UniProtKB/TrEMBL annotation:
SUPFAM superfamilies: beta-beta-alpha zinc fingers (SSF57667). SMART domains: ZnF_C2H2. One of its GO terms (molecular function) is RNA polymerase II transcription regulatory region sequence-specific DNA binding. Keywords: Metal-binding, Repeat, Zinc, Zinc-finger. One of its GO terms (cellular component) is nucleus. The keyword Repeat applies. PANTHER family: C2H2 FINGER DOMAIN TRANSCRIPTION FACTOR (EUROFUNG) (PTHR24409:SF356), ZINC FINGER PROTEIN 142 (PTHR24409). Residues 7-36, 115-144 form the C2H2-type domain. This is Transcriptional regulator family: C2H2 zinc finger.
């Protein structure tokens, strides 16, 4: 193994004479390399983050710091945020009301003059009535789905969906993009704005 191999880019395999030269290359090309703080190579972004805890995601409501977006959503879903009055149920209802284009949820769609449940085809005059029906004992399922339409995974909680995205298992986004998705989504929720594909860089 040559001395320069410690200073190579894992995205393009180009070698550099120093860590700073590699850093400049990564900065200029936007390549991802999970050795920015040291010369140790990691197999995945999750492995890198387990050791290098230099990135953070902040709760939009109380400003508590988390290592991952899924951790911040888990904080909200668990009712731990004292400033948001949010838990898993209230967060799910907020998202379901704002996710008119079914980007994160699959509860139903507007069909003519009513909202149709995706599971039983029952019709409702308003989206909020559909959300109430979906969250009732009539259907107990996984309301969230992966934003990659080619991935068929569904999730019970938003934090589980974000753990899936952070794992990069379906290839929809790089690990470093997920905090931006978190910020855009929580901004939409906080402002009561419709969730759009823009929230997920699409």
């Amino acid at each position: 193994m040559s001395p320069q191999s410690n200073f190579s880019c894992t995205s393009c395999a180009r070698s550099f004479s120093s860590p700073f030269a590699r850093y400049q290359h990564l900065r200029d090309t936007k390549h991802q390399d999970f050795r920015l703080s040291c010369n140790r190579q990691f197999d995945s972004p999750m492995d890198y983050r387990a050791i290098h805890r230099d990135m953070h995601v902040e709760c939009e409501f109380c400003e508590e710091q988390f290592l991952t977006a899924s951790g911040a959503f888990h904080h909200l879903e668990g009712g731990c945020c004292e400033k948001s009055n949010t838990n898993g149920d209230t967060l799910a209802r907020q998202i379901q009301n704002l996710d008119i284009d079914n980007i994160l949820t699959d509860i139903g769609e507007h069909n003519g003059g009513q909202w149709k449940c995706s599971l039983c085809s029952k019709g409702f005059r308003t989206r909020s009535a559909l959300v109430m029906h979906w969250n009732s004992p009539a259907h107990s399922s996984k309301p969230y789905h992966c934003i990659n339409r080619g991935c068929d995974k569904h999730f019970i909680t938003l934090s589980a969906l974000f753990q899936h995205l952070e794992s990069e298992s379906c290839g929809i986004a790089g690990f470093t993009q997920i905090p931006l998705y978190y910020l855009r989504l929580t901004d939409s929720i906080h402002n009561g704005e419709q969730i759009t594909l823009f929230d997920f860089g699409r």
